[in-house]
Amino acid sequence: MSSGFASFPQGPLGDFVGKLERELPKLPKQEAKVAQFILLNVQTIGPETGKSLAQRAGVSEITVGRLMRRLGYGGTKHLKQLLREQFTIGGPSISPSADIDSRMSQIMEAELSAVRTVFQQTDNEHWDRARRIVGSASRIYVTGFQSVRGLAEDFARRLSIARPKVQYLSPHDSMLGEWLDSDNSATKHECLVMLDVVPYANEGQALARIAKRQGRSLIVVSDEFCHWSAEIADACLYSPSNTGMFLESTLGINATLALIVDHAANASTGEASKRLASWKKNARSLKLF
Fold first, then answer.
1. More confident residue, 189 or 183
2. pLDDT class for 27, splitting at 50, 70, 90?
3. Residue 104: phi, psi to the nearest 5?
4. What's the pLDDT score for residue 132?
5. Which residue ranges make up each domain of the chain?
6. Which residue, 35, 153, 227, 248, has most beta carbons within 10 Å?
7. What is the pLDDT of residue 178?
């Protein structure tokens, strides 16, 4: 995977990348050339040998070995081992099992149907409007209530990597201080994405009306029972949730949110990739992973 959280180098390769970043400013010119090549291509270089990496970076194999030893590794053989460990998929394969009891089988089919429904809806007018709004908004606020607040917070974080100026909005915590200085000339370019599921929060509908009154666009992501969003929202994205489990499913809503993030990233692929790279750099600096 060349993008996303899974592209963040883990384990020994992650340690190696961290050392490269720290030492890069102090390296001799030719070794710095190798280090820069690795950092820029860490997700695509594959299980290289020292020789092939040297050819691609435009240096000698000796230079690659010298860099590895400077960083405390055992030459080019150690580099090959690091890359092989990173890009080899280990573990036994998992075979599909027919031993799913009837209830689990019914739930599985209902869950898959919910996701299928989400994808089938992506060419309707509400999705078209949602894509236009997300693509053109100067700022996006995200909020969610009750059991889906966590989903909303996660969505806001992911969307903020795909595009700039995304903020999670918690009316109870901030008392809408973010909207005190709002005027229609600015807010008409802003958007509120709201998550809400049954039983619907009264404050959600009140907040939606405030957003619209102040001139913002409104996208509501909800379940199939939502009775109020069509009256006020610019775009209503629904997902089936009644799949037979103890509580309503959020799988379809997760798929909806993931598709919004994906659209935002694909609308400006170059900028989104830069933002992801910057996020990774900041995460390493903070030693988050």
1. 189
2. very high
3. -65, -35
4. 96
5. 5-89, 103-282
6. 35
7. 87
Is-contact 166 142, C-beta < 8 A? yes
Domain 103-282 has CATH 3.30.70.1130: no
- Evaluate the omega torsion of the peptide bond into residue 28 and state whether it is cis, within 30 degrees of 0: no
Structure tokens at 247: 């509580």
Question: Does the domain formed by 5-89 have CATH 1.10.10.10?
Answer: yes
Cα separation, 181 vs 188, whole angstroms: 14
Is pTM beyond 0.90 here?
Answer: no
Task: Tell me whether residue 212 is exposed, middle or buried, using C-beta atoms within 10 angstroms of its C-beta: 0 to 12, 13 to 18, 19 or more.
Answer: middle
Name 194's bridge partners. 143, 220
Distance CA 63, CA 177 (A): 56
Asked if residue 9 lies in contact with residue 38, where contact means CB atoms within 8 angstroms, the answer is: no
- Residue pair 272/265 in contact (Cβ under 8 Å)? The answer is yes
Instruction: Quote the tokens at residue 5.
Output: 């959280």
The confidence score (pLDDT) of residue 47 equals 63
**Measured in Å, how far apart are the chain's first and last C-alpha atoms?**
18
What distance in Å separates the CA atoms of residue 19 and residue 40, rounded to the nearest whole number? 14
